[in-house]
Task: inverse folding
């Protein structure tokens, strides 16, 4: 669009300087357009009006260059740093840093992030699933219930059997992570804790002596060795003390455990360890318990055994004088047989009784006289 001054231009306006305005679509700088408009408007004003408005001292002080206005605006924009885009970028950077720090602070998250960056996230998740299944199987194996079977047989058959159960608790319920639970469950049992105890009932405690009742054997089936709770985060381990005693006999003591590292190193105690014989089948190697009589109880059997041995020696001496050959091994075999007939299980048992009775000098001296004067059949 163009504007020209026509013939009706009012007096005082310049008709010789028609200035074209920018055509629509033509790119003209803001400074150039303002300058053109200013000059055009200045030339079109009557001289007296121009002088009145622009040449007054108070108006001259208000004149500001268009370049200065534009430069001032541009400089102000340059000095303003925290604009909205800059703030958004800074927030994004801060959140990204926090996110990376959060990821790297945990090994599992770091591994997952690394797998994702390498395009192996699916493979990584599959490995986690398999590892979790393995841990579950391990927990089930560690916390599986175990039961044992044991048959007690002994002599004399009127003996009393006392069975005491000790229950130790390994509580890992404070952990929620499967790895932590498994690590806790695999720890050795803390035997410094005070276990729960109870007496196990058995038929030997209810014998009627007046009726001369006896017990051939005591079967102990499915006695607990290890049990766990339903959540499988707590294990209960069991140990047993067995005492077999009878009047006039030395008692026998047995300690049964599932932990081969936890033995009862106390004099006169025998430790038995549960041994797995099959899936879920545990047994202890109990070979019986023949109680050894006290010296006083064995005194009469001792005297009778020595009298029988004295008679067999006299007979052997007589046959040897007749010229018959009887070896020392044969004599020793006969003596052991006579000891067994008189209630002595082994030569060692007889030796212990012999030592005890010899301490009673009065008894032993009187018995020696009796032994020398016996008449053998």
Result:
């Amino acid at each position: 669009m163009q504007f020209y001054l026509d013939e009706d231009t009012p007096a005082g306006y310049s008709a010789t300087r028609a200035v074209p305005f920018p055509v629509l679509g033509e790119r003209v700088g803001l400074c150039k357009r303002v300058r053109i408009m200013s000059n055009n408007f200045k030339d079109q004003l009557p001289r007296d009006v121009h002088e009145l408005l622009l040449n007054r001292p108070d108006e001259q002080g208000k004149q500001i260059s268009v370049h200065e206005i534009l430069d001032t605006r541009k400089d102000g924009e340059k000095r303003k740093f925290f604009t909205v885009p800059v703030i958004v970028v800074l927030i994004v950077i801060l959140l990204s840093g926090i996110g990376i720090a959060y990821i790297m602070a945990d090994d599992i998250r770091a591994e997952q992030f690394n797998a994702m960056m390498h395009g192996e996230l699916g493979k990584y998740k599959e490995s986690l699933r398999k590892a979790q299944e393995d841990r579950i199987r391990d927990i089930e194996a560690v916390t599986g219930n175990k039961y044992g079977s044991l048959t007690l047989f002994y002599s004399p058959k009127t003996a009393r059997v006392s069975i005491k159960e000790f229950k130790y608790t390994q509580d890992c319920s404070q952990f929620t992570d499967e790895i932590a639970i498994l690590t806790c469950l695999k720890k050795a049992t803390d035997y410094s804790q005070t276990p729960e105890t109870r007496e196990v009932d058995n038929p030997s405690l209810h014998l009627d002596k007046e009726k001369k009742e006896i017990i051939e054997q005591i079967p102990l089936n499915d006695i607990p060795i290890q049990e766990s709770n339903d959540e499988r985060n707590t294990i209960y381990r069991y140990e047993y003390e067995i005492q077999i005693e009878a009047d006039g006999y030395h008692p026998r003591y047995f300690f049964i455990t599932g932990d081969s590292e936890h033995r009862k190193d106390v004099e006169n105690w025998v430790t038995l360890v549960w041994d797995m014989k099959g899936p879920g089948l545990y047994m202890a190697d109990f070979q019986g318990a023949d109680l050894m009589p006290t010296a006083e109880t064995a005194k009469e059997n001792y005297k009778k055994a020595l009298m029988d041995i004295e008679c067999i020696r006299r007979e052997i001496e007589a046959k040897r004088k007749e010229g018959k050959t009887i070896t020392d091994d044969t004599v020793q075999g006969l003596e052991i047989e006579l000891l067994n007939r008189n209630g002595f299980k082994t030569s060692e048992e007889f030796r212990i009784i012999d030592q005890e009775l010899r301490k009673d000098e009065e008894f032993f001296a009187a018995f020696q006289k009796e032994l020398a004067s016996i008449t053998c059949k």
